[in-house]
Specification:
Helices cover 32% and strands 41% of the residues of chain A. The longest helix of chain B has 19 residues. In chain B, 46% of the residues are buried. The chains are: A alpha+beta, B alpha/beta.
């Protein structure tokens, strides 16, 4: 695996740990369809949450959240709909974003709810 | 989450209103939104602010920042809000003293490297801030001198965004290398000194009329063939006017600042002289423009001289647009979303040839114009406009005799100005208590009232002209005002028959 993929994998595991600690139940990881991939699907207090995880080795090229563009958000919405179509309807759905910046100083996890 | 506030000034004309800049930091994907009726230049502020903050070593928060400029209904123009927006946005992170930030007015544009660029209109903006009760205003280093002209408000000149942040209590590492502040653009010359009155050869009656005009604030028209010296004479008028008083100096300097001409470290004290070319458009003369409304020539000439050379060549509509400011001393420009007010109490000087070929009545060449052409030419100056001109003068070509005769002992501008200052002193002593500083501003009723009425013998000539129908009632009052100016210039208490006669001649001299 390339270095960036290892970083991404590690980041997703950190995100899962973070969400589990917050009391999220993880339903699915790396769910794929023809539209693309959802990093994490979880459930928090009756709401199904589609989580996009962005991991960076530093902020030299911008904050990880800066990489979540309107185009990406639109694709996440379509992916969420596709996931629901396969797993049956849900009452409440939202999309969260988790940013992980890992550098020599340590790891910072940021979690923003309801980004779309 | 966190909300921070600071203040800036939105200018319309020379009036300014305080604008509150609120910034809100919310959880969400990084975004930077400016709302509250910004124009294009202001909408671009977000990119300048982001780059300037990053290059100052303080990144904007990677969350959703919303900046609101309130009142949202007031249109806001230009880049002068950059600093306020940056400070409000950064204050949401808690790095600044919120109370201090909220009490401060910020003016200035940001450059991408984080330095503060000077902006136009700082003087009227600081005046507006003081009027609204602000106590501290932060301006770009290059505007510091101009802002400090306003007493009663603390001014801080900042070279960089870091300086501004440090002023509000941010703890930053010292910069790696000293920063060179952005200087204000070099001053364009204050009213280029237009030669001396002693350069004028001959024309004793015109020189006298110029002084009368300077004493009483009378508008002046000169008619004469090409080469007679009309332009030369008109350009000397500003030199005869006394220095500006404190209020006038602030108004003149404010307009200069708005026009982007720069003010420098002291108020302008000499009356301005504006001579627009006859191709001038309505907007260039009275002010205007879409979006940001800019002062026109009449406002730049406020408290000074507006000289229209070749007056009949101006478009009729443009000339008639002068009527309202001539009457009220200010110009209000209305746009769908805003009304801008500028000062426009100027002294009008018109110069014209008697006909298109310019030779009518000169005696030294034949006029080739038909009577109808000649009539039409001067008819371009509308009656209502000419009616506001108190002094009408025919200027003749200088003869060889005059050229060799009287070069010695010619009146200099300084001497003439001393006479004018002394005469204005007499005017003020007489009418200052009533609030009229110049003879041209005195209403007709008191002029004819029992207190200031002239003795019947002194005004007989004028009464006869009125009876004959040679002048109108308004003309009667105007001749009286000029007569008072002549008397003031000569140092007499009251106009005598001789002064009235000369005033009547100056009114009807064409």
């Amino acid at each position: 695996m390339a270095r960036k993929d290892v970083l991404g994998r590690t980041g997703e595991q950190l995100a899962v740990d973070h969400l589990t600690a917050l009391g999220f139940a993880i339903l699915d990881r790396n769910w794929r369809c023809s539209l693309g991939e959802i990093d994490i699907v979880a459930r928090e207090a009756g709401t199904t949450v589609v989580v996009e995880v962005k991991t960076r080795g530093g902020v030299g090229y911008g904050h990880p959240f800066d990489a979540i563009t309107p185009v990406k958000l639109a694709r996440l919405r379509r992916l969420a709909a596709a996931w629901c179509a396969e797993h049956g309807p849900v009452d409440d759905l939202r999309i969260d974003a988790v940013a992980i910046v890992a550098n020599r100083d340590g790891v910072v996890v940021e979690h923003v709810r309801q980004v779309a | 989450m966190a909300v921070a506030r600071t203040r800036a000034v939105a200018l319309t004309g020379v009036d300014g209103a305080l604008v509150e800049i609120e910034a809100d930091l919310a959880n969400g994907l990084p975004a930077f939104t400016i709302i509250g009726l910004p124009d294009a230049a202001l909408g671009e502020a977000k990119d300048r602010v982001r780059a300037a903050a990053a290059n100052s070593g303080v990144d904007l928060p990677s969350r959703k920042v919303t900046v609101n400029l309130s009142p949202a209904s007031l249109p806001k123009h230009g880049s002068g809000f950059d600093v306020g927006i940056a400070v409000a946005a950064l204050a949401t992170t808690g790095m600044l003293d919120l109370d201090r930030v909220a009490d401060t007015v910020h003016l200035g544009e940001l450059s991408l490297d984080g330095r503060l660029r000077p902006v136009a209109g700082v003087l009227p903006a600081v005046l507006a801030a003081r009027r609204s009760g602000a106590r501290l205003v932060v301006v770009p280093w290059g505007n510091r001198d101009e802002a400090e002209l306003v007493p009663g408000i603390r001014v801080e000149g900042a070279a960089t965004l870091r300086d501004v942040l440090a002023l509000h209590g941010a703890e930053l590492d010292p910069p790696a290398e000293p920063v060179e502040p952005i200087a204000s653009p070099p001053l364009t010359d204050e009213a280029p000194t237009a030669g001396d009155l002693s350069d004028v050869i001959g024309h004793p009656e015109a020189i006298e009329a110029l002084q009368v005009a300077a004493v009483g604030g009378h508008h002046l028209m000169m008619l004469g063939p090409p080469g007679a010296g009309k332009t030369l004479l008109a350009s000397r008028l500003a030199g005869l006017l006394p220095d500006l008083g404190p209020d006038a100096a602030i108004e003149v300097s404010s307009v200069r600042s708005l026009a982007g001409l720069g003010v420098g470290s002291r108020l302008i004290t000499r009356p301005p002289f504006e001579a627009p070319h006859h191709s001038a458009t309505m907007a260039s003369l009275v002010g205007g423009g879409s979006g940001l409304i800019r002062p026109g020539a009449v406002s730049r000439a406020a408290h000074g001289v507006l000289f229209l050379d070749e007056a009949p060549e101006f478009s009729g509509a443009v000339l008639d647009a002068l009527r309202q400011p001539l009457e009220t001393g200010e110009i209000t420009i209305h746009r769908a979303r805003t009304v801008a007010r500028f000062p426009a109490r100027f002294q009008l000087v018109l110069a014209a040839n008697p006909c298109p070929c310019g030779q009518a009545g000169t005696g030294d060449a034949e006029c080739t114009c038909t009577p109808n052409t000649r009539r039409r030419y001067l008819a371009r100056l509308s009656g209502p406009l000419l009616d506001r001109v108190d002094l009408r003068l025919t200027v003749r070509r200088v003869s060889a005799v005059q050229l060799t005769g009287e070069a010695e002992g010619a009146l200099t501008s300084a001497q003439a100005r001393d006479r004018v200052v002394a005469a204005r002193e007499r005017t003020r002593a007489r009418w200052g208590d009533e609030g009229w500083m110049l003879n041209a501003h005195v209403p007709g009723t008191p002029l004819r009232g029992p207190k200031w009425r002239l003795a019947p013998g002194d005004r007989a000539l004028l009464d006869r002209a009125l009876e004959r129908g040679a002048i109108t009632m308004r003309g009667y009052d105007r001749v009286l005002r000029v007569a008072w100016s002549i008397a003031d210039l000569e140092g007499d208490d009251r106009p005598r028959a001789e002064h009235v006669g000369r005033a009547l001649f100056l009114r009807k001299g064409i």
